[in-house]
Design a protein that fits this description.
The complex is a heterodimer of chains A (531) and B (188). Chain A has 531 residues and is an alpha/beta fold. Chain A contains 19 helices and 18 strands. In chain A, helix 1 packs across helix 7. Chain A starts with a strand and ends with a helix. Chain B has a six-stranded mixed β-sheet with strand order 2-3-1-4-5-6. The chains are: A alpha/beta (531), B alpha/beta (188). Chains A and B meet through strand 1, strand 7, helix 10 and helix 13 of A and helix 1, strand 2, helix 2 and helix 3 of B.
């Protein structure tokens, strides 16, 4: 059977067909659709696959590890920066190893279509010393899931699958394979100490993981996904990683001869690379993201081979690959182009008309512009980050999930008098609660605004972990009842909210204001469903 | 057979529905398909585009090489011009003529339309007005798709079958309206 599938959907279906028992994830572009697909899949319902959104990527990674401990297959999905949050559990999962198979999907976003950096998840895989897969097509994404779960159980290691935006968010036809059953419950015996990373055990596990590395390289050298494609006697070799291969392939008909090594499984297949180096005078590395393989080649190969890529300037140092920049790197002439239009202007994204965040910024700007111009506003990650753009221009920082509260506290510690943190409901439960506890304990002179739209908005309206719990969470963390307020962000309420903000900015201690109004997108969707 | 299509518009205008219909039609003709979409931040009222490639031969890249697009289908005239450099020398532009103004510095419409009219292969469609006249304000995208059908080498019957499949869960009335929209577009 054939189906037209988004890359993310191919991953999801592949995992379900590989006997998945649980997917653990926090929404993040471009990875969100993997979990959403499983949540709606009939097979997942039938099997009772666990698929509820997690509070953050770390809780997701740990829950997956627990499911693996109990013997079943678990999938963890996140965007690339989510892997920073999950990193403690992720890196140590290489040390504990796995019981049931674990596949961690990290979706990178070269060119930062919807992200704050361009980090390349392959570095994390190498750091954790585990195998990495990087599909080049939706078919491969589907097929690789059962391959990855089998490999994970055979090696007793988690496997990282790295996607990029153009893989995750691109559709193609996929041939669907066999469906495998779930694993049986099978936890280790109670005297097994492998999962207890006390130093004495961790040292033993570390030795074992290190000793396994040559086997991982050997597997990559034998992998059906790492293949050579050659025509003629080309002296300029090309190593094409992941979807980089597609861009080379797009230009293939214009090359008279070529010598290509396609890499989709890591660690880097050293022997295959060394063989190419013996045949060729130069090697061009075509990889989306950061120069991961290119840097390694400089350590693997003798200096007689010229290594070309992002570091040497044949390909741009930053930004995603495309058929055009790869074409130039291959030494081919660009196609004839129409001039770019001079009248076209940028059309940046904006908060929806009628969105409650707008009214929060409306009130905040009243105070900043008219009362306390020395106010600095520490932002966070979500739709409301768009408050940094016109017409609001209300944010002074946006760094990582949860940084609004902690940065405001640090700035207040330094003496900033009017420090405001603005954070969304989902981001607050993801990584803001611990920071708020720090602020409570120090009675930091900051005003925290938890702009609650009852959903995870930017990624398309997924359930938010803290809905209906925010006042209780704040009280539980020790926020003073007198300085804890809930308001309804509507245009008519802007003066009242502004007055409240002023009052709390005057107070030289911790306050929390929770403007609460449902996201107009999810509201409209629910109204439609009711009809 | 090969058609490299760039779909352009503003977040929320329905370009992904156009892509879904063309993709379904192509799949049912046994063609290869690749379609790169934009999700996430830019969907909030920013410019969005999608690369859709259909071909009788396997397709390598998800992205269309610059200067190789056979057709730009745009829900908005300035957004059509945003990808003009991607168009092949004899490529087609099929675009709605109604501007979507959600930015303070939207250029003079005259300038935009004049630049569009410098293209010989242009189908400038008053899709919004046609939709209003025919009381189908939510089917502007299908009118535009109908207007592009000829250049796409996909006949209206094939596209109608896809509308039927893709929109069937939304009820017969929605299916019928969108098929009618395709036919109105075809005449435009």
């Amino acid at each position: 059977m054939k189906q037209l599938l988004l890359g993310d959907h191919a991953v999801a279906l592949g995992a379900l067909h590989a006997g998945l028992s649980g997917v653990y994830a926090y929404p993040g572009t471009p990875s969100t659709e993997i979990t959403e697909y499983i949540q709606l899949a009939p097979l997942a319902k039938e099997r009772g696959v666990k698929s509820k959104w997690c509070t953050n990527e770390k809780t997701a990674m740990e829950a997956a590890l627990g499911m693996s401990f109990a013997g079943k297959r678990a999938l963890v999905c996140m965007k690339h920066v989510g892997l920073n949050v999950a990193a403690d559990a992720f890196v140590n999962s290489g040390m504990t190893g796995v019981n049931g198979g674990v596949v961690v999907v990290s979706a990178d976003d070269p060119s930062m279509h919807s992200s704050q950096n361009e980090q390349d998840s392959r570095f994390y895989g190498k750091f954790a010393m585990i195998p990495i897969l990087e599909p080049a097509s939706q078919q491969e994404a589907y097929d690789m899931m059962s391959y990855a779960f089998d490999m994970s159980e055979e090696l007793k290691l988690p496997v990282l699958m790295r996607l990029v935006t153009r893989m995750a968010h691109s559709r193609a036809v996929v041939e669907i394979g066999q469906v495998r059953d779930e694993n049986e419950l099978n936890p280790p015996a109670s005297d097994v100490m492998d999962w207890v990373l006390l130093p004495a055990i961790a040292r033993r596990k570390n030795d074992a993981l290190t000793a396994l590395q040559p086997k991982l390289v050997d597997n990559a050298e034998q992998s059906k996904y790492n293949i050579q494609i050659r025509k003629g006697n080309a002296k300029n070799g090309v190593i094409a990683c992941g979807i980089g291969y597609n861009y080379v392939n797009e230009n293939l008909s214009d090359l008279e001869e070529y010598d290509i090594l396609r890499i989709a499984q890591y660690p880097a297949p050293i022997k295959l690379i060394q063989e190419m180096a013996q045949r060729c005078d130069s090697i061009l590395v075509v990889e989306d993201g950061q120069p991961f393989v290119e840097e390694q080649l400089r350590g693997i190969l003798s200096q007689s081979v010229e290594i070309k890529g992002r570091l040497s300037g044949e390909l741009p140092r930053c930004g995603e690959l495309n058929p055009d920049n790869v074409r130039v790197a291959l030494g081919l002439k660009s196609f004839e182009l129409h001039d770019k239009s001079e009248s076209v202007v940028a059309r940046p994204p904006a908060l929806c008309q009628g969105c409650g965040h707008r009214d929060v910024y409306g009130a905040l700007n009243e105070i900043i512009r008219n009362v306390y111009p020395d106010t600095r506003v520490f932002g966070d990650i979500g739709c409301y980050t768009l408050g940094a753009l016109s017409p609001f221009r209300a944010l002074n920082s946006c760094v990582d999930m949860g940084a609004s509260i902690t940065m405001a506290k640090g700035a207040a510690d330094a003496g900033l008098k009017h420090a405001v943190a603005i954070i969304g409901d989902s981001t607050f439960t993801h990584s803001g609660m611990t920071g708020l506890l720090d602020a409570v304990n120090a009675n930091a002179a900051i005003t925290v605004i938890i702009s609650d739209n009852l959903t995870t908005g930017m990624t398309g309206g997924q359930d938010s972990a803290g809905t209906n719990k925010f006042e209780a969470i704040c009280r539980g963390l020790g926020v003073d009842e007198e300085h804890l307020h809930v308001v309804e962000p509507l245009p008519k309420n802007i003066p009242v909210i502004a007055e409240l903000m002023k009052k709390e900015l005057d107070y030289q201690g911790l306050s929390v204001i929770i403007p609460r109004r449902e996201c107009i997108q999810t509201l409209a969707r629910k109204a439609k469903q009711k009809k | 057979m090969k058609k490299d299509i760039i779909l352009a518009g503003v977040g929320g205008q329905g370009i992904l529905s156009i892509a879904t219909i063309i993709g379904d039609a192509a799949m049912n003709k046994g063609l290869y398909i690749k379609q790169a979409e934009v999700h996430g931040m830019s969907q909030r009222g920013g410019d969005v585009h999608s690369h859709l490639r259909i071909s009788s031969d396997p397709i390598a890249s998800d992205l269309i090489p610059e200067g190789k697009a056979d057709i730009i289908i745009a829900m908005e005239p300035m957004e059509a011009l945003r990808y003009k450099h991607a168009l092949a020398p004899n490529g087609w532009i099929v675009t709605s003529s109604t501007p979507f103004v959600n930015i303070p510095n939207y250029p003079e419409l005259e300038t935009i339309l004049a630049e569009l009219k410098s293209f010989e292969n242009l189908n400038l469609v008053d899709a919004e007005d046609l939709a209003k006249e025919n009381k189908m304000p939510r089917s502007v995208n299908m009118i535009l798709l109908g207007a592009a059908a000829k250049v796409l080498d996909l006949d209206i019957d094939t596209l109608s079958e896809s509308v039927n499949r893709v929109f069937s869960s939304k009820g017969q009335a929605i299916v019928d309206m969108n098929i009618a929209a395709l036919k109105i577009g075809e005449q435009a």
